[in-house]
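re: ur question from yesterday

yeah so i grabbed the chain u mentioned. its 387 aa long if i counted rite. heres the sequnce exactly as i have it in my notes:
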Amino acid sequence: MKLLLLAAGTFLIGTDVFVIAGMLPQIGDSLNVSISMAGQLMTVFSIGYAVLGPLLAGPLGRRPPRVALATALTAVALGNALCALAGSLPVAMAGRLLVAAGASQFTPHACSLAANLAPKGRSGKALATVTTGLIMGSVVGVPAGTWAADSFGWRPTLVALAVATAAVAVPLAAGLRGVASEHTAVRPRERFAALRGPQVRLVLTVTVFAVIAEYTVLTYAASVFAEATDADGTRLAVLLFAFGLGGLAGNALAGASMDRPAGRRLVLISMAGMTLSFLAMPQLDTSFPGALVIMVLWGVVGWMYAAPQQHRLLRLAGPAGSLAVALNSSVIYVGAALGGAVGGLLLGEVSPRALPLLAAALCALAVLTELWLLRKDRQSESVPVPT
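ran it thru and got these structure tokens back, copy pasting raw so excuse formatting
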């Protein structure tokens, strides 16, 4: 039951992260600003998430899980309510910044708690369950939220999202009563020292390469697949939905394998698979069936590394596990912004079909980094323990 409540929370977070994108025209009209200005709500959220994630993880990490998670969800609910009631863009931005503060804390602490609550040898599967909530938020929650905003208005939709988030916070806080924080006695200096390990840095480096590669293509999917979709928004939506379904399958595969010896190779398989997917993309993106196939395959391998990265950060960072996962989440948002910026700069200079090739090169760097990391893992395991 606890895992399901955590997954429900990440589902709402996953929905919240992206649902604003579908509301931007309505928000702009309502607040009397251009759609590009309304789009800054997403920029504020991303920057807030990236900065506040590591900044708040330490103080909240010393609180009992029920307090940390309930506080995070409450911040998300209040932020959505503030945004829904906003009469100006700055007030709406303040609401999104509050949402970012809560979202940046809920996911890392939920992942850390899921791993701690799981029976021995099942922490990987528990992490995948929580991650499934995030994927479902983008696959199901975002389209549903966009439809609701179009049908009922963006303000009622955000109010409904705020109410749903608060409704999950209450039973989650009650269900976690008596669950203690694993690292309450660890001093801040020890937590940050655990983050300085070379293996932690390598794990984060893999995330950086992977996310920049993915968002270089995903941000400009409409241009990359313009020939396959004939600039039809419905066809593009189908491709993105197929990507999400592939992500659910990839996350399920990761959950089934993470706690087994083969789980150590999941990130390597993911990075290599994305490299091949991006290399194949220019050959398959001229027809809709071909684009559909490559998007499903990309979704499978592209979502296969998310939970394993969190899993080993929790293992490698020790007392700073939740802080490391928060930092990983921040890296994802920074990487997404960089990917969008790099793709945008190149899009004016090269053909959109060249973007997947750049993404393939970045994923190849991730493969090399991952091989180095696996080598260091083997070396550390071969060092005899002093007696």
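noticed a couple things. The two ends are 42 Å apart (CA to CA). also The domain at 1-178 is CATH 1.20.1250.20 (Growth Hormone; Chain: A;).
anyway ttyl
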